[in-house]
Design brief:
Layout (H helix, E strand, L loop, with lengths): L1 H8 L2 H25 L4 H11 L11 H12 L3 H4 L1 H18 L4 H13 L1 H5 L6 H21 L2 H15 L5 H14 L3 H26 L4 H8 L10 H14 L1 H9 L10 H24 L14 H11 L2 H27 L11 H8 L1 H7 L1 H4 L3 E4 L2 H11 L4 E2 L10 H4 L10 E5 L12 E11 L2 E11 L1 H16 L12 H6 L9
Parallel strand pairs: 1-2, 1-3
Antiparallel strand pairs: 3-5, 4-5
Helix pairs in contact: 1-2, 1-18, 2-6, 2-7, 3-4, 3-22, 6-7, 6-9, 7-17, 7-18, 9-10, 9-16, 10-12, 11-12, 11-16, 14-15, 14-16, 15-17, 16-17, 20-22
Length: about 525
C-alpha cells in the first residue's frame, strides 16, 4: 500500500483516482452511519437550541443553533440534521486541494485524500459545535495564507470574517486567533501588523454579538467556560499522557510525529512562498496544540477539542514531508480508517442486550431504543410534565418523545440551558414524572411534592426509576434547589459589567446573582 501511495504522490491521475475512491467509499459509509446512528445526547441538546434559536446559548456561541434552526425547517430527521457533519470533511478536503493545487496536481489530490482519511473525518457524523468550527477555522487558515501571499487588506479582512464565524461556533476558535497573533508579531512587518488589524476588524461582529448577549444573560458563557466547569481540575500525570495519545490519534502518528519534531525532509515543494506557508501553518497548528498541552497538566482535553486544528497540521505535513513519508501517512490513515469501520460494522450487528452487564446499559437503551422507552412512559405523558435529573437523559428522552423534557434538580455545571427554557413558577401545583437511570438518593425529590410515589419500568432489561410527583411545591423547590443553583452556578464576578440575569430576575428579584 505504501508503494502505491508513493507512486501516486508523483502521478496526478493515480492521486486523483485515490481521492475519488476514498471520497465515494467514506461518503457512502458515513451516509449510512448518519441515518442509522441514534442521536447522541449532545446532538439532541444542540437540536433543542435549533428549536429555540437565540443570539446565544448557555455554554457555547450560537452558530450550531442557527444552522439547526434552518435545517429543522426542512426536516427533523437525524440524517437531515447531520448533513453539515456529513459534508464537512469533503468540503475541508476540497479547500485543502484548492490551496495545494498551485504546488502540483498530485500533491493537491494526496493532501485532500489525507484530509478525508484522518480519523475524525473518516467516521464522525455527529452534528455538534465542532462542525461549524472546523469549517470556519479551515476557511480562516486558507484566507490567511492567501492574505500572506497577496498582502491585500481585503484578504486579511475576509480572514477576519471567517474567524468571526469560527468564534461564533466555539470559543476554541480563540486559540486560532492567538496563533494568528503570535505568527504576525514573531517576525513583524508593517504589512503583517496592518493585516492583523484588518483581521481584528473582521472578527469584531462575533465579539459584539457574544458580549451583547452575555451581558444581558448572566454571562453564562464566561461562567461555564472559565469558572464553573473546572471543579475537577488538578495536577495529574495521566492527563498529559492522555493528551499526547489524543493528538497522535486525531492527527495520526506520522503527522503528529513530524509536526512535533519540525523536521522538513526532502520535500518536493520548494521556494520562498512554500517556506512562508510552512512556517505559517506550523504556527497555526502548534500554538493551539501547545496551549492544550499546558492545560492538559490539570485537565482532560477532549478529542473533539482538537478537530479544528487538523487542517493546518495536515497541510504543513504535505508541504514538509517527502514522498515516502506522505505515502506512509496515507497508508496508515487508510488502514486505521478501515479498522474504525470494521469496529462500527461489528457493533451495528451486536444486539443491545449483549451489553447488559455494563453499568451504562440504561443510558445505552435510552439512546438506542428511545421509542420503546417513550411507549413505556405513555401512561404519564398526558397528565404529567416529564422530567429527568440531568441534561443528558432529559434531552435524550425529549428527542424520543418529540417534546421538551425538563431538568429537575441541581444538575451539574454542564449544559444548563434548561435554566433558560424552563420556568418552575409555571409548574407550581402540577404533576411531574422524573425519569432516572439510577436508584440512589431517589427519595431526595419527595420533599418537592405534596405526594410522591416511586415506580420502576423495564425496557430491554434496563430498569428506569420513576418519581411520580403529585402537586409540585414550587416555593420549597426554589428555596432548596434553585437558590443553591444561584449560589453555585450564577455567582457572577463583580468585575463583569451588567446586571440583567434571567435566573435571578425570574426567581430571586430581591437577591443578587453576583459573587460575594
Amino acid at each position: 500500500m505504501t508503494s502505491y501511495f508513493e507512486r501516486a504522490f508523483g502521478d496526478a491521475d493515480r492521486a486523483r483516482r485515490s481521492f475519488w475512491i476514498a471520497l465515494l467509499v467514506l461518503t457512502a459509509l458515513r451516509a449510512w452511519f448518519a441515518a442509522a446512528l441514534p442521536m447522541t445526547s449532545d446532538e439532541a441538546y444542540f437540536a433543542q437550541w435549533g428549536r429555540h434559536p437565540d443570539w446565544g446559548f448557555y455554554d457555547h456561541p450560537p452558530m450550531i443553533g442557527w444552522w439547526l434552526a434552518l435545517l429543522e425547517r426542512v426536516s427533523d430527521a437525524r440524517f437531515v440534521l447531520r448533513l453539515p457533519a456529513l459534508l464537512a470533511p469533503p468540503l475541508v478536503a476540497a479547500l485543502g486541494w484548492a490551496l495545494m493545487r498551485r504546488r502540483g496536481e498530485a500533491l493537491a489530490w494526496t493532501t485532500a485524500t489525507l484530509l478525508l482519511l484522518v480519523p475524525l473525518n473518516a467516521w464522525n457524523v455527529a452534528i455538534t459545535t465542532d462542525i461549524p468550527l472546523m469549517l470556519f477555522a479551515a476557511l480562516t487558515v486558507a484566507l490567511y495564507l492567501r492574505a500572506l501571499a497577496s498582502g491585500r487588506g481585503l484578504d486579511y479582512l475576509l480572514c477576519g470574517f471567517a474567524l468571526s464565524g469560527a468564534l461564533l461556533s466555539k470559543y476554541f476558535a480563540g486559540l486560532l486567533a492567538i496563533a494568528l497573533f503570535v505568527h504576525a508579531i514573531t517576525r513583524p512587518t508593517p504589512a503583517s501588523l496592518r493585516g492583523l488589524l484588518w483581521i481584528v476588524a473582521g472578527s469584531l461582529p462575533a465579539a459584539a454579538i457574544q458580549i451583547a448577549w452575555n451581558v444581558q444573560n448572566c454571562w453564562p458563557n464566561v461562567m461555564f467556560n472559565l469558572i464553573n466547569r473546572h471543579g475537577d481540575a488538578g495536577l495529574s500525570w495521566r492527563t498529559p499522557l492522555l493528551y499526547a495519545v489524543s493528538v497522535a490519534y486525531v492527527l495520526t502518528p506520522p503527522v503528529a510525529w513530524r509536526l512535533s519534531r519540525g523536521v522538513r525532509e526532502a520535500s518536493r515543494v520548494t521556494g520562498e512562498d512554500a517556506a512562508r506557508d510552512r512556517r505559517a501553518l506550523r504556527f497555526l497548528a502548534l500554538v493551539p496544540l501547545a496551549i492544550f498541552a499546558l492545560l492538559s497538566l490539570v485537565k482532560t482535553i477532549g478529542l473533539h477539542w482538537l478537530a479544528s486544528f487538523v487542517f493546518p497540521a495536515v497541510l504543513w505535513f504535505a508541504l514538509a514531508a517527502s514522498a515516502r513519508s506522505m505515502a506512509r501517512a496515507l497508508a496508515f490513515a487508510s488502514v486505521f480508517a478501515l479498522l474504525h469501520w470494521l469496529v462500527i460494522g461489528a457493533l451495528a450487528v451486536v444486539p443491545t442486550e449483549a451489553f447488559r452487564a455494563w453499568s451504562g446499559y440504561p443510558g445505552l437503551v435510552m439512546t438506542v431504543h428511545g421509542d420503546e422507552l417513550a411507549d413505556a412512559l405513555a401512561p404519564w405523558r398526558k397528565t404529567h410534565v416529564i422530567a429527568s435529573d440531568g441534561y443528558s437523559p432529559a434531552v435524550t428522552i425529549g428527542d424520543a418523545l418529540g417534546e421538551h423534557v425538563i431538568v429537575f434538580g441541581r444538575g451539574t455545571s454542564h449544559a444548563r440551558h434548561d435554566d433558560i427554557l424552563t420556568d418552575f413558577r409555571a409548574l407550581d401545583g402540577k404533576d411531574i414524572l422524573i425519569v432516572r437511570r439510577r436508584s440512589d438518593r431517589i427519595g431526595e425529590f419527595d420533599a418537592y411534592f405534596d405526594r410522591a410515589t416511586h415506580r420502576t419500568i423495564t425496557v430491554r432489561g434496563a430498569t428506569f426509576h420513576l418519581v411520580d410527583g403529585r402537586g409540585f411545591r414550587y416555593e420549597v423547590y426554589r428555596d432548596r434547589v434553585l437558590d443553591e443553583i444561584r449560589r453555585r452556578y450564577y455567582a457572577v464576578p463583580r468585575w463583569l459589567p451588567g446586571h440583567a440575569c434571567y435566573f435571578c430576575d425570574r426567581y430571586f428579584p430581591d437577591r443578587s446573582c453576583r459573587a460575594p
